[in-house]
Amino acid sequence: MIAALLDHLWQSTLFCGVVWVIARLCRSNSAALRHGLWLTASLKFLVPFAALYGLGALAGLPAAVEPHFFEPAVQAAVPVVTPTTSFQVAAPEAGPGLIGLLAAIWLFGAFVIAVRWVLAWRAADLQVRAARSAPGAPPDARVTDAAVEPAVAGSFHQVVLLPVALLGKLTAPQMNAVLTHEREHIRRYDNLTANLHRLVETLFWFHPAVWWIGRQLVEERERACDEAVIESGHDGAEYAAGILEVCRHCVGRPRVPYSVSALSGNLAARIRRILAGAPPAGVGFAKVSALLLGALACAGIPLITGAADGTLRRATQLALNTRALESAEITVAVATRALAQPVVAAGTREVWIRDSSLRDMVALSFELQRGQVKGDGDWLDSPRYDVRFATRYPVSDPHSLDPSALRGLVIRLLAERFDLEVYVNQRCQSPCGRLALARANSAD
């Protein structure tokens, strides 16, 4: 567990470093792009590469599965059993006392941050409820008597909070520019993404990179909204003057807790960029392609690697168990109790198929739905049998036995006891009936 956590932390830290390099390369482009990059770095802490690897290993690589029937036929087959086998070398774990101490420290820190988060969210919600609509104001703006900065509060139902004392201090162009900035926060759902990062901060409060990512998110989201204000046609000088007037009004006043407030970020740098008025450069085809390829690689490589590794492990396990079972002794008896469906149970030196019809046995061993096994006669479905395979060699990992390891045994059983032939794509499987089995035995 500790080793897995350490792996996740260094991978997320490395990912954060890569995002920093990419953000530096994109510093002439829009702040919205860089904000998206930093948000990806934040969410990476919630999605370990090991989880993607495990998901790929569970699914495996797609493989062509041939249909298997009692009579010649060609149809698509869908596997229904996909067991997984995992071989891992366990790293030495820390002692239980150290693990308990570290867990207690983490839990205390996460609890403190979570409580602050909940209390701040509650305080912001109370301020929103106490605010009122101003005459002539848009529906997404409310005025409050509280001495706070202008801010956007709420995660899903977001509103702009304006202190009533500020309304008479801004000219109409300045107020429109400030409102455009705050509405851009609403359009971008910045409060929602900020709360997602607060979840990361709560879980990984001990990691300095998490707090650094938080500062980058604040800087880039404010710059993105400033760029949107200028792009919408507002005069940069009027907008900068409006921000300065808000600063004068809000000196020493508290912010709406855990909300996107008007004076977030580096104000001096923001005003310089606003007055410069230089639009961000276009991303361009090359950068877009590189970013898309990078995103696909980050998600795809762990998935594909896990799928390939999982498929290889399952194939190796299947080969080992097929070899162990190929000379097993077969005992057949009529089932004594009815089960909801056939059950495959394995021990170290024996495997059972319980309450199974002949059709079920073929479906299990060929990984098919029973309806895909074609053949005429009620005798395929009744009676039902309990079959025991006793082997001289131990079964590897019996709890994860792949039923397809029984395929050869089932074909031999059907030929030996029932004189049945199993065809796959019009080709009879060996041994092809009782006569073929007798010939093979005599040759031996």
- Tally of separate helices: 13
Main sheet attributes: strand count, strand direction, barrel closure: 4 strands, mixed
Overall mean pLDDT score? 80
What string, H for helix and E for strand, traces the elements in order?
A: HHHHEEEHHHHEHHEEEHEHEEH
| Strand runs, count | 10
| Overall 3D form | elongated
Output the radius of gyration.
Answer: 33 Å
End-to-end gap: 53 Å
3D architecture notes:
With 444 residues, this protein is an alpha+beta fold. It folds into 3 domains: 1-60 and 283-325, no CATH class; 94-281, no CATH class; 326-443, no CATH class. The protein is built from 13 helices and 10 strands. The chain has a 4-stranded mixed sheet with strand order 1-3-2-4, sandwiched between helices. The protein has a 4-stranded antiparallel sheet with strand order 5-8-7-6, with helices on one face. The radius of gyration is 33 Å and the shape is elongated. It starts with a helix and ends with a helix. The model is unreliable at 64-93 (pLDDT under 50).
Keywords summarizing the entry:
444 residues, alpha+beta, four-stranded mixed sheet
List the topology elements.
Elements (H helix, E strand, L loop, with lengths): L1 H24 L5 H14 L4 H11 L36 H35 L10 E4 L6 E3 L5 E5 L8 H17 L1 H14 L4 H24 L4 H15 L9 E2 L5 H10 L7 H42 L3 E6 L8 E4 L3 E7 L1 H8 L19 E6 L16 H12 L4 E2 L2 E2 L4 H11 L1
Parallel strand pairs: 1-3
Antiparallel strand pairs: 2-3, 2-4, 5-8, 6-7, 7-8, 9-10
